[in-house]
Amino acid sequence: MIISLDIGGSAIKGGIARSETDIVPMGRRPTPKDDFAAFTETIRSFIAETGETPSCLAFSIAGVVDPDTQRLTCANIPCVHDRSLAADLEAELGFPVLIANDADCFAMAEAELGAGRGHRIVFGAILGTGVGGGLVSDGRLVNASGGFAGEWGHGPILACEAGNPPVKIPALPCGCGQKGCVDTVGGARGLERLHKTLHDLDFPSEEIIAQWQRGEEKATSTIDIYTDLVASPLALTVNITGATIVPVGGGLSNVEPLLAELDRAVRSRTLRRFDRPLIVRSECRLEPGLIGAALLGLKAEAVLRAF
User: Which residues form a coiled coil (predicted)?
Assistant: First the structure.
């Protein structure tokens, strides 16, 4: 039995996994963000709730494990930031601990149980508050030991012109410290920022999308430019990875007309021309981080049993 945990800035969600087809949610608890002892006790409470002894704990978390030092970068949960979290929790709890980035867990869930089933190479893209991604090849998470593979949202690669006719796009500063990243325009907050930059209008992303679907001129311009800006780096990601399907998660994935526009734009720019949808809505709609972490834990357990 694996206990999987999806660690977010506001809540920790738990689950019990006995196989790929037997993953049961356990509920949620508030995340202790500033007290590591309280954080550990919260994890311990999930273990106690099962009444069983797990073979390992598998975590999905909004952070990145350094593959060399195994230290975690997790800015929104200070008590675990810059810790060797797996080793620290193993020492406290007495069970093997596996930790993976939440976007990587999303990609694993989609590759095994979602829209990526039957595909050798799956790139899972997140278009939520920001932009993220994960890469799975032949059932194996590329970031199995940690790292930044799949982070297509960062790097100074955004076009300086977009749309038809072309409009100049400033290199907007990104939270990662660089300028001109896809993350500056690609997520929901980025879409709002782009609309403000183009038209000096402050609207939530939901309203921008609603106006676009009603055919309003300024929102239509913003979505056209958004699609142009995001499609090129996503097409490049497909070219580099060889992915044959890109399941999309996050809030913007719920806007199927937007995904259809993005799919058409990406497919027109990839070297391999697909005659079917490539950019698709994710299928694991219920806690993909929890599912992905469970799958990673089950795979790790299977490898250990093989030895």
Answer: none
3-state class (DSSP) for residue 121 = strand
Sequence-distant (6+) residues with CB within 8 A of 184 are: 158, 172, 173, 174, 190, 193
Closest CA to 148 of 63, 250, 242: 63
Assess if residue 113 is contained within a domain: no
User: Is 147 found in the same domain as 33?
Assistant: no
Instruction: Locate all alpha helices (DSSP H) within 129-187, ordered by sequence.
Output: 183-186
Range(s) of the domain holding residue 223: 118-281
pLDDT over 60 at 29, yes or no: yes
The rounded distance, in Å, linking the Cα atoms of 2 and 24 is 11
Instruction: Tell me the torsion sign for CA atoms 229, 231, 236, 237.
Output: positive
Domain identity same for 80 and 156:
no
Angle at 191 between CA 215 and CA 113, to 5 degrees: 100
Distance CA 4, CA 182 (A): 31
Residues 275 and 163 in one domain: yes
